[in-house]
């Protein structure tokens, strides 16, 4: 099994630099020179490196998963492909950072909240995109209490820097 130290040695960089190259993080703003990253990735591919995502989740205390949350299923979602297009777009954007997505929904707000709690507690998901708006939202209140990041810059009136896409 190829280790981070093996890659760093082959690329002629420190293990910290190799780690940053292999694990870009849009949330913390940890960036690396594009040429250095390309060189490290080339060496990793040459050596046959494959990340151990379970080990990464254990060491980081979080997974490379973005929770995508729909409101309760009211029957409107089934006939509307907006959500599907959003899922494809989100997945395409986060794949660049070695992230994947997981969906949370339900038939009512209690089920939606329970599914979000499973993502937070069970899979250590820290980043969430909410594909709905609602006053006094129990999901966003829960996520803020747990100190998770919400990507909600697209909401009306919100133009803050997005923790997911940086916009």
UniProtKB/TrEMBL annotation:
Where, by residue number, does the polypeptide cross the bilayer? none
Kindly list any coiled-coil regions of this protein: none
Q: Which GO terms describe its molecular function?
A: DNA-binding transcription factor activity; transcription cis-regulatory region binding
A Pfam family matched in the record? LacI
Keywords of the record:
DNA-binding, Transcription, Transcription regulation
Has UniProt tagged this entry with the keyword Transcription regulation? yes
Q: Which residues form the HTH lacI-type domain?
A: 2-60
Which SMART domains does UniProt cross-reference here? HTH_LACI
Lineage top rank: taxon:
Bacteria
Check the record and name the InterPro entries matching this protein.
HTH_LacI, Lambda_DNA-bd_dom_sf
Q: What is this protein called?
A: Maltose operon transcriptional repressor
Q: Which organism is it from?
A: Oenococcus kitaharae DSM 17330
């Amino acid at each position: 099994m190829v280790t981070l130290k093996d890659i760093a040695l082959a690329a002629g960089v420190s293990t910290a630099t190799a780690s940053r190259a292999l694990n870009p993080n849009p949330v913390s703003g940890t960036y690396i020179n594009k040429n250095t990253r390309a060189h490290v990735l080339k060496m990793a591919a040459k050596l046959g490196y494959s990340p151990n995502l379970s080990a990464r989740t254990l060491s980081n205390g979080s997974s490379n998963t973005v929770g995508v949350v729909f409101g309760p299923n009211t029957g409107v979602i089934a006939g509307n492909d907006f959500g599907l297009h959003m899922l494809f777009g989100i997945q395409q954007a986060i794949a660049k950072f070695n992230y994947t997505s997981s969906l949370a929904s339900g038939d009512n707000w209690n089920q939606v909240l329970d599914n979000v709690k499973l993502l937070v507690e069970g899979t250590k998901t820290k980043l969430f995109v909410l594909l709905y708006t609602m006053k006094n939202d129990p999901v966003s209140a829960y996520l803020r209490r747990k100190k998770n990041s919400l990507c909600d810059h697209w909401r009306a009136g919100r133009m803050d820097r997005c923790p997911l896409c940086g916009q």
